[in-house]
Each structure stands twice: as structure tokens, then as C-alpha cells.
Design brief:
OB fold (Dihydrolipoamide Acetyltransferase, E2P); 22% strand; 5-stranded mixed beta barrel; alpha+beta; 46% helix
Length: 147
């Protein structure tokens, strides 16, 4: 999705962009839907801020277009929350199959949980970097260019 906004701060490679009510937001409201994830997350507030990668050299006060990437959130949530719990159960069951005592089974369960939780967090952080919002072009007064 592409949003139009105004740069409020910039350090050369990253900038903070204020996004206000746009054609995108009014289109959601007209369709009577619940709104995009951004609108839902911000409780209907029509102004929010995005930290974005800036390769265009935008400066404070410039109107810019920012591309945000949708999707992948359900998969990330499953990877972060469900997979470690599944490995905790698997660690306990493997300990049982090996004939380990109760204490060692619990240790195997927590070890499985910890290893997968750390790996999932590392992978999720790397995925987030790949899908960071980015400034793609200077904005224009024409809202029809915004998705």
C-alpha cells in the first residue's frame, strides 16, 4: 500500500513521515469495512507516523509517498508464538520416549522452547527488516496516485 505524507524528521537514510487522512482512508470508510490494519491499530485516528527507509534524499517538510508492505503477519505470529510451544511439547515427548525422569523431561521441554523461541525471534527480526516501509518518491498534490 502506498501512503502520502509529510517528512517530519530525517537523518539522511531514515525518516519519520506523518500520514494523514487520505483517499485510501476515505475509500475504506466508504466501503463500510473495518479499515486497513493501520486504521484498526490506531483506533480510527486518521493521523499516524511511519518510520521509513529513505533512499530519495527527502528533507523535513517534503511531501513524499511511502510504500508499506502488507501480509506475512499471521505467519510471523505463528512462528513466534506457536512454534516454540510446539517444540516445548515435542521436547517433553522426546524425553519421555528416551525414558528420562520427570525433571529431565521438563528440562528437555524448556530447552526445545528456548532454542526455537530465540531462532524464531532472529528470523522474525530479519524478515521485518526486509519489509520495512520505504520512501519511494516525492509526493504530489494529486491523491489519485496513492493506492
Amino acid at each position: 500500500m502506498v501512503h502520502k505524507g509529510v517528512v517530519v524528521s530525517s537523518d539522511g537514510t531514515r525518516c519519520r513521515v506523518r500520514i494523514t487522512d487520505s483517499a485510501v482512508c476515505s475509500g475504506c470508510a466508504e466501503r463500510g469495512g473495518p479499515g486497513c490494519p493501520g486504521c484498526i491499530s490506531f483506533g480510527g485516528n486518521k493521523e499516524f507516523y511511519i518510520n521509513a527507509v529513505d533512499r530519495t534524499g527527502a528533507s523535513v517538510g517534503d511531501t513524499v509517498r511511502v510504500r508499506t508492505h502488507d501480509g506475512g503477519n499471521v505467519l510471523k505470529a505463528l512462528m513466534i508464538f506457536l512454534l516454540p510451544v510446539a517444540m516445548m511439547i515435542a521436547g517433553y515427548l522426546i524425553g519421555s520416549l528416551m525414558g528420562l525422569g520427570e525433571g529431565m523431561r521438563v528440562l528437555a521441554a524448556f530447552t526445545g522452547f528456548a532454542v526455537v523461541a530465540v531462532a524464531a525471534a532472529i528470523v522474525a527480526k530479519a524478515e521485518n527488516r526486509k519489509h520495512e516501509p520505504e520512501v519511494i518518491a516525492p509526493g504530489s498534490e494529486d491523491e489519485s496516485e496513492v493506492d
